[in-house]
């Protein structure tokens, strides 16, 4: 076969061969196949081993591995921890599953999703509460809520026929704000006001919320304990995950993924794009409405402040962190997003998490591995050297103590500087840490290794002298943000997400 027959015309004899640019597609070359060796190399580390092991587990086995620890948790913890760490995590996971249908499966940017959650709680309260005077059984009220939420999702989904991307996001966000305004004002007005014929109608309780919601009551069996609600939510989560697993593997699931990747191409291939959008909105809304019935019954009320943009951001963080389109990812994402801030309420837990995240980020992000080891050893040596110099020249700079730090705290007292009155110097160190972080983004190679050593030590100084005092407030959010940044840098597509392949 003549030279150049597959890759284009042959070069004239004696002409220099032009190498392909690394950032440009090569004619006659399948880039996906050409990069297989590189992908194999990236899959040889610990992350690759875990990913391959996870792929070998069957679907029921994955479900058991994800939810099995949740079944054991009530037997090893207190009721307060069961509510904060367990039940709220399961409710977040259920909510994230519904949002994952709209955003992860179908690729629709829905910013009004939390309104369906609130709609489910309020509608269940209207049908079963002391506030309304009606006490419908849960086996009747919950199906009504689910169907009604799906119908509201259908109406909102009709706007997606002509709107995409940012425009759809604006409309759905308006829907969320309209819902919050409605529940704040649907209390019939002032106490001396009444409508003609029907009189004064108080649907939602206004800004005070809808109170005295009945506990879930199925055929006379009433759920009245935190443990009961926990296991009910866990079973519901398992059933919803199973249902979505089969839906995702069906023709509808494959069509949703085609819609997410390229709506125009999907429509050209005769995929019913508009009907798929409506289905996604309806499935997501129904899941959120169902979750709302649980949340309303758990807290015996529905209050406008519980269904705002803050909760929407939290659920989006769970979905993105777990991986768009991943069912198991939302469980892990909910566990991290809800569990990490709760753990950070204790300074002892926060200290272990802070230094653990620093070391883990260093080991995962720095390549080759020996550079990470050099940085760790260099930081330890740098700290002892600085501590010794300051102790010899300024005794008050090392006279402070770490309260309740345990063995780790006692060890840190001989390594990190602890001034007697650290307020002013800690503030300047905080500013210096920000500057050092910016410098790190501008240097490469061994210069980054050199700059990283004092930066890590400065991080420890700022933590021990400033941030640890505010661990129950702003510091929790800072650490949670840092944790999410580290995870998303290591896994940009999410913990269980699949990287998209784009042909340019």
How would you briefly describe this protein structure?
The chain is mostly helical and 504 residues long. The chain contains 20 helices and 6 strands. Mean pLDDT is 81; it is low at 1-12, 15-23 and 191-199.
Features:
504 residues, mainly alpha, two-stranded antiparallel ribbon, two-stranded antiparallel sheet, 20 helices
Structure description:
By secondary structure, the protein is mostly helical. Helices cover 64% and strands 2% of the residues. The chain contains 20 helices and six strands. It has helices at residues 31-34, 36-42, 46-56, 59-72, 79-105, 113-127, 138-157, 165-185, 226-249, 251-261, 263-268, 273-299, 309-322, 327-343, 347-365, 369-393, 406-412, 423-440, 445-465, 474-490; strands at residues 128-129, 134-135, 210-211, 217-218, 221-222, 301-302. It has a two-stranded antiparallel ribbon with strand order 1-2. Helix 10 (251-261) crosses helix 12 and helix 16 (369-393) packs across helix 19. The longest helix is centred in the first third of the chain and has 27 residues, at 79-105. It is globular and about 75 Å long. The chain starts with 30 loop residues before the first helix and ends in a 14-residue tail after the last helix.
